[in-house]
Amino acid sequence: MSDRCMVGPTRFEEYSEKYKDFFIMTRRNGIIEVRFHTNGGPFQFDWPGQTAYGNVWSDIGRDPENEVMILTGTGDLWQIGNPEVWKTKFMDWPRNRKLEMYHESLRMIENMIYCIDIPTIGAINGTGSHWQLGTFCDITICAEGTEFFDAHYIGGIPPGDGIVLTFQNLLGIKRAAFYAYTGMDINAQEALNLGMVSEVLPREKLLSRAWELAEMIMQAPRSARHLTHSILSRPWKKALVSDQGFQLTRQLYDMSIDEEGVLERLIKIKGRFQGNER
C-alpha cells in the first residue's frame, strides 16, 4: 500500500478567501451562498472575473461539505457588463491570449455544469449580463423588475456565450431566434410565463426564499439530493456537449476578423448592460 497521503479538496476557509474579490461566500448547515460582487457592489465583469468563474466552480464542487448552492448577485443588478474590456480589438489580441479566452469562456459555463454535483438555486436579483449562469441552476427565481436580453447581435457580434443556448433550450428555436436577432427584453413576468424562471418575488424577499427552498431540498437524503441534481442537470450537459463549443467558436471567429472592433458598438447600448435602460 502506498505511503503517499491523499490529496483532499480545498477547504471552504481557503477558497472563500481566495475568491473574496469576486465572490462573497457564506455557508450554513451545508448550504453555500455564493454572491458575486465588485467592491461590495454589483459585480463588474472583466477578464480576471471570467477566469475566477471557471476556477471557483471546481473548488466549490470538490468540497463535500457543500450540499446545496445558492448563486446570487449584489444590490439591484445581477452583473454590470463593461464594454471597456474590449478596448483592444480582439483581432489584435496575442494568439495565445485568444486561445485562453476560448477556454476561459467555456470553463465559465462548463465547470459550473460539470463540476457542481449538488442542487443549485439561482436567485437573480436584477438585470445584468451573463444571466445564463442563473438559469443553468436547477431552480431559478428572480426579483421583480429583472429583464433578460441578449444584446450580442444588435452589438454586431454573433451570440455564442451561452445566452442563446439558454434561449434555445428554454424557449424553443423560434423564440430563441427572435430574441437573438431583436435583442428585445423579456421582463420578469414574461420570463415566468415562458418558463425561464419559477418564481418572481420582491427583491427584498428573494434571498430568504432561496434559503427556504435550499432548506427544503436539504430534507432529502444526501444520495437523493446528488442524484436528483444529476438527473435535472443532464439536459444542460447534453446541450453543452452538442452546441456550446460550436456557438462560442462562431462568436470568437467573427470577432477575430472584425477590423472595426466591438467597443464602439457596445458603448451605444452600454446602458442596457448596466441596468440604466429599463
From TrEMBL:
Gene3D superfamilies documented for this protein: 2-enoyl-CoA Hydratase, Chain A, domain 1
Family the entry assigns: Belongs to the enoyl-CoA hydratase/isomerase family.
InterPro entries: ClpP/crotonase-like_dom_sf, Enoyl-CoA_hydra/iso
Molecular function as annotated in GO: catalytic activity
Protein name: Crotonase
Organism: Clostridium diolis
